[in-house]
Amino acid sequence: MIYGSFGSTGLEVSKIGFGAWAIGGNAMIGTTAIGWGPADDEVSRKAIHAALDAGINFFDTADIYGLGHSENILSDALSGERDVLIASKVGNCAVDNAFTTNYTKNYILAACEASLTRLKRETIDYYQLHTARVEHLKQSECVEAMDQLKQEGKIRHWGLSLNTFEPEPEAQWMMEQGVGEGFQLVLNLLNGKSIPLMRQAGALGYAIIPRMPLQFGLLSGKMPGNRRFDPDDHRHNRLDPALQKDVLAFLDNHVWPLCNQYECSPLQLALSYIAGFNEVSTIIPGMRTPAQVSENTEPLVVLSSTDHNYLEQLFHSAPGQAVWHELISRG
């Protein structure tokens, strides 16, 4: 496992982290799926132990994942493990069986205490506002709450998990104000929207956490192209067969041929591309089985500058933009 700095925080993190959304299970808020379908808790624990064995020291969760269940499973599996870093998020919640958000100071302070209780820890290493927007940041309560939690020792560092399709406004506001210490953002072979702000933030010392590195499995090299997802899986409406067909054709024509050149799997290529950006601190593919841990911790390959630039610019090409707009239309 490769390790590197987590922005300017002084923390050292594994290049591959553990995305813990899926181990939250098939939670629903009303009729809205907020998980990835059923998860076997014992298998999830084995996956976490396999991650530790592979050298992963960064685990990313959120209080909304499984409505707290992801945090509970991490706590159980990591009991006694103090040399690991746990990141969680706050702001997304359920009220009256409906999904909503809350970034008020009192809510954040109380939610942090609840997360600490579930995680059985005295402090959260990295706490993130979960997709807060500029209007929330300008109201200042959420920033005041995060600063207070840090002063009280409830959290060590904090940042913002950015919007998937429009990450710029919130990142720009935080950088202009000089607040926060990191950004979680979407970056993968199909979504390069955040690259300019990532470079700007990295130069300022912000930690960078790319999420969705495999775009809900589309970049794993294993999706058949006609997979259907159950209603308790958030991909039910996001990854319809028509989208799968178009994306996989794009990858077959423009991306996967590089796998032969580098003698690697599509998954390795997808992760290696992201790791090739110097600003990246840790990448958090979702994992819920030991097999997935093994696949996501295979050795990364070093892409030539020509090939890396080709993949980066592919996002701006006509075929890349066509796929991008299809992804936006599905949410």
Q: Can I get a quick summary?
A:
By secondary structure, this protein is of the alpha/beta class. The protein is 40% helix and 16% strand. It has helices at 41-53, 69-77, 105-119, 134-138, 141-151, 168-177, 195-203, 241-254, 257-262, 266-275, 290-296, 305-314, 318-330, and strands at residues 3-5, 12-14, 18-19, 28-29, 32-33, 58-60, 85-90, 92-95, 98-101, 124-130, 155-161, 182-186, 207-211.
Can you tell me about this structure?
This protein has 331 residues and is an alpha/beta fold. The protein has 13 helices and 13 strands. The protein has a 7-stranded parallel beta sheet, with helices on one face. Strand 1 and strand 2 form a beta hairpin. The radius of gyration is 19 Å and the shape is globular. The model has no long low-confidence stretch (mean pLDDT 96).
Key words describing this protein structure:
331 residues; 13 helices; TIM Barrel; seven-stranded parallel sheet; alpha/beta
Average pLDDT, all residues: 96
Main sheet specs: 7 strands, parallel
Structural class: alpha/beta
Kindly provide the radius of gyration, computed on alpha-carbon positions and rounded to a whole number of angstroms.
19 Å
CATH class: Alpha Beta
